[in-house]
Every structure is written in structure tokens, then in C-alpha cells.
Design a protein that fits this description.
Largest interface: A-B, 27 and 23 residues
Oligomer: heterodimer
Mean pLDDT of chain A: 94
Number of helices of chain B: 0
Largest sheet of chain A: 7 strands, mixed
Largest sheet of chain B: 6 strands, mixed
Number of strands of chain B: 11
Mean pLDDT of chain B: 92
Number of strands of chain A: 11
Distance between the termini of chain A: 37 Å
Shape of chain A: globular
Structural class of chain A: mainly beta
Radius of gyration of chain A: 13 Å
Strand content of chain B: over 45%
Helix content of chain A: under 10%
Order of helices and strands of chain B: EEEEEEEEEEE
Chain lengths: 112, 110
């Protein structure tokens, strides 16, 4: 079974731009969660989607949004990028909500 | 909001030593996860547990719900165990997603 894939793997943007990251979960997994990892704050939960519905959202501003499609693939969008948004963005999928998480390799975003 | 504390933050040990990493949390949970992150960023889920003890190869995870505490043990440690080990908890019903500890940076020297 193929693992969780994320595209792109690396991205450089400038302040004020927006970015869309994509995550394809393991086949059959219906839950996708997104996380941000920075050296200062560590890993932080962004949001979780299950069957196209957002179940939970972490403590992030409204510039961070996401969605899940009927095939369980998920995208997250960050608008009006700030320097502090530079981070590793990880997605993880699980069979059911908040069960054992299978992580993708991450997208490393650098905002200049 | 749950607070998750891990100790130690850094640990250097010799190959073959028995390793213990601790995790404590402040509020009742539905499950606790132990994750392993190697340099380069890849994260692997090692255990998800809500009670008792689980074992996988040389890794053992225990949880004490009453004391709000979990431990991850590595027996016969090996240099390939060098990684960051992260504890994460999920609240009852899955609300609020996962809350993570800061991680324990483990180095096993040959």
C-alpha cells in the first residue's frame, strides 16, 4: 500500500503570497490531519478532516484553511503569507478520526 | 487545554543501554501517541495507547491513566534508535486534535 504523499516537498514564497499544499492519504483512510512544525513551537495541530468535514481546528488564524475532497485527498491553504509561516507542514492520515496517524514526508515552506 | 511535558529533553547513551523517556500530561485523555522523528523530518507512529502496556520489538510503552503519565522504554539500544521521540495526546472524543510534547532528542553512541 502506498504511503501518505505530500506535494510539493519544498516551496519558497514571498510575504503576502498565498500557498496551497496537497496531501494524498493512504488508500481507505478517511481522516486527514495537518500539522505545523517549527523549531520554536515544535509540532502544532492545524486541523483535521473526516469524510470531507472539518472535525477539529487548532489555534491558528483564519489565514490557514483546508478542505477534503470525496476521495479523501486534502489541501491546505495559507493566504497572506508571513515570515513566521516558514515551517515544515505535515499531514497524517488514519483509518478513523484520531487513530494511529501515518505521516507524510512533509512540505518545507520558506517565506522570504 | 492539555499541557504535555517530556523528560529528559536530551539524552545521550551508549549502545546497549536501557533507555526511558517520560511523558506527563495535565488533563484526561482518550489516547496517547508515541512518535519517532528522524533527521530530515519523517515521522513514524510507534504506539497509540489508552491503558496498560504495549510492546513492539525492543520498544515498550506504558501508560498510567490515574497518574497521567506514560513512559517509552528502549531495550538494548542501538545507534539507529537515535532520533527525536515525541509524545502526543488526544482529548476525549478526539476534540482539539493532538497536543504534542517538545520531544526528547536521543543519541545512542556506538
Amino acid at each position: 500500500k502506498a504511503g501518505v504523499t505530500q506535494t510539493p516537498r519544498y516551496l519558497i514564497k514571498t510575504r503576502g503570497q498565498q500557498v496551497t499544499l496537497s496531501c494524498s492519504p493512504i488508500s481507505g483512510h478517511r481522516s486527514v490531519s495537518w500539522y505545523q512544525q517549527t523549531p520554536g513551537q515544535g509540532l502544532q495541530f492545524l486541523f483535521e478532516y473526516f469524510s470531507e468535514t472539518q472535525r477539529n481546528k487548532g489555534n491558528f488564524p483564519g489565514r490557514f484553511s483546508g478542505r477534503q475532497f470525496s476521495n479523501s485527498r486534502s489541501e491546505m491553504n495559507v493566504s497572506t503569507l508571513e515570515l513566521g509561516d516558514s515551517a515544515l507542514y505535515l499531514c497524517a492520515s488514519s483509518l478513523l478520526a484520531m487513530e494511529t496517524q501515518y505521516f507524510g514526508p512533509g512540505t518545507r515552506l520558506l517565506v522570504l | 487545554k492539555n499541557e504535555v511535558e517530556q523528560s529528559p529533553q536530551n539524552l545521550t547513551a551508549q549502545e546497549g543501554e536501557f533507555i526511558t523517556i517520560n511523558c506527563s500530561y495535565s488533563v484526561g485523555i482518550s489516547a496517547l501517541h508515541w512518535l519517532q522523528q528522524h533527521p530530515g523530518g519523517g515521522i513514524v507512529s510507534l504506539f497509540m495507547l489508552s491503558s496498560g502496556k504495549k510492546k513492539h520489538g525492543r520498544l515498550i510503552a506504558t501508560i498510567n491513566i490515574q497518574e497521567k503519565h506514560s513512559s517509552l522504554h528502549i531495550t538494548a539500544s542501538h545507534p539507529r534508535d537515535s532520533a527525536v521521540y515525541i509524545c502526543a495526546v488526544s482529548a476525549g472524543g478526539g476534540a482539539d486534535g493532538l497536543t504534542f510534547g517538545k520531544g526528547t532528542h536521543l543519541i545512542i553512541q556506538p
